[in-house]
Here is the input.
Amino acid sequence: MEIDKDALRAKYLEERNKRLRADGNEQYVEPVGKFAHYLEDPYVEPAPREPLTDEVTIAFIGGGFAGLVTGARLKEAGIDDVRLIEKGGDFGGTWYWNRYPGAQCDTASFVYMPLLEETGHMPSEKYAHAPEILEHCQRIANHYGLYDNALLSTEVTDLRWDDELFRWIITTNRGDEMRAKYVAMGTGPLHRPKLPGIPGIESYEGHSFHTSRWDYEYTGGNPAGAPLDKLADKRVGIIGTGATSVQCVPHLAKTAGELFVFQRTPSSIDTRNNHDIDPDWFATLEPGWQQRWLNNFTLLQTGGFAEEDLVMDGWTDISQRIRDKVVELGDVSPDGMLQAYHDSDDEKMTEIRQRVDQIVDDEITAEKLKPWYRQLCKRPCFHDAYLQAFNEPGTTLVDTDGKGVRQIDATGVWVGDTHYELDLLIYASGFEVGTPYERRSGFDTVGRDGQKLSDKWADGMVSLHGTHVHGFPNMFIVGPSQAANLISNVPHNLVERGRTIAAILRHAESSGVEQVETSLEAERAWVELLEAGGRSFGGDQTCTPGYYNNEGIDVEDGSRISALGYPDGPVAYFNYIADWRSTGDFAGLDFR
Ligand code: NDP
Here is the structure.
């Protein structure tokens, strides 16, 4: 494939520069005032109950995958007194809130959906749809008895270590003031909806909602994909063309009277190739298969070699192309690796742009749908109906040439000098990233001697293994940061963390200790190790702006440190932590 690399670089730069704006992440606004209900639970009315003042062994804040898999491992380890606290009316996290039409996982179900073997579930599709994933969350909770002691529709408002009782005091919006010997937090990195700070956004008088609070009463249809039949006579606008929009636009295009897709930056859309799972084939999988699939996916997705690609999807394809290019160029120096990455990415993105031409009938629309940046600058998307949606007669792509919607007024939106009158305006504008953790989680955490976690992390996250924080005894964090940082399959990070926390608690409880805490030295040494490795998520300022690179503004040191991962990559981290927890001496932790 002949590619004019200089011309391509120039085009990427030109497109990126159009989108750079001085306000960076500040361009987004919180859903307050007239939009405050976007933060509320539209699905479940909280059942009345008396406030609690009891004590549990471990309280877990967040009932998404992090809480579920950790709860499951704790139960397996014989720690029965587990309480999950979740602000939604049921478990599921992302999959509880996001019920927009077409929602599905974009990492293969066999590695994305945790605890499949333990719960005996066969995913129905290679990429399962949201209702099945939500049901799986409930299946995990039922299987491990996690509903028994759970507090749903309950938001933590304060979390405080009591150094006389050696207990965490947890206060909630339901009047609870309970104690827990241990706490763990899995509050999720992207869950607080954000809105574009477009002038006049408050003045719109038509119907509107954020994709994570889809209003089926207005649109008709349901999360299972039934037609959005109430939109037949409506003019619908959607702002945003990220991973969420890519999944719901095909449904809107099929049913809306007219659909206007307001685009600032097109997503890269590779093939999906979803298919049903054959139960006969599934029955041939040998016990232990899911861990093998996880290991195989992570190895291949991060550039390793394996005899077989079990998952075979867009993610493993990206990495194997880079890896094969390294072999082809025969240069394993850092420069050689970079060259291989650039060459393989240029080919991949050229294919993705060619795919647009093959699918989209209208040449001008096709041109506007082509992404001009490297594939990993933004979340890569995979879909077999999104580009096709622009061939529907009622669907119009409104490209804003990188500038975004200029103004919103009572009846619709303005792009340049053109006004689009709308009955419904949907915000597919994503979720807060890079804002302070206490704002996203809704509470601060106060450790020993009244120290706030927000103060401790004022210059960036510090931890041992991404899990333990000095000054915060008996507290565990569950997420990808300062650990494997495996972005292509977030649940893998959580499954491993659940195992680790269960092993620590089993050890602590069987030895009769009151406190587990990392030492300052161990914490420092871990962060230094990560800093020396410099493997950080995002921050590539040659990329088009987005949440992967702090909207194109150089990140402060603090954010960079918070996004660090284990120097030798996810596979090495998972091996390291498996060894660490199996030796039984838990180096870096003090048990008192
Ligand atoms: P994103 O943050 O990815 O997308 C927000 C969109 O809003 C972007 O297209 C952005 O444009 C656009 N936008 C913002 N302001 C304006 C404006 N003023 N005018 C016009 N457009 C504007 O949010 P998503 O909800 O799509 O996805 C968030 C993340 O959630 C994904 O990256 C992914 O990690 C995850 N996700 C995963 C899915 C899965 O696994 N199946 C499915 C959906 C989401 P621009 O690009 O120019 O900034």
Remarks:
- Residues 405 and 470 are 45 Å apart (CA to CA).
- The chain has 20 helices and 21 strands.
- Residues 19, 104-106, 190, 196, 198, 239-245, 247, 262, 264-265, 379, 404-405, 428-431, 546-547 surround NDP (CB under 6 Å).
- The longest strand covers residues 177-185.
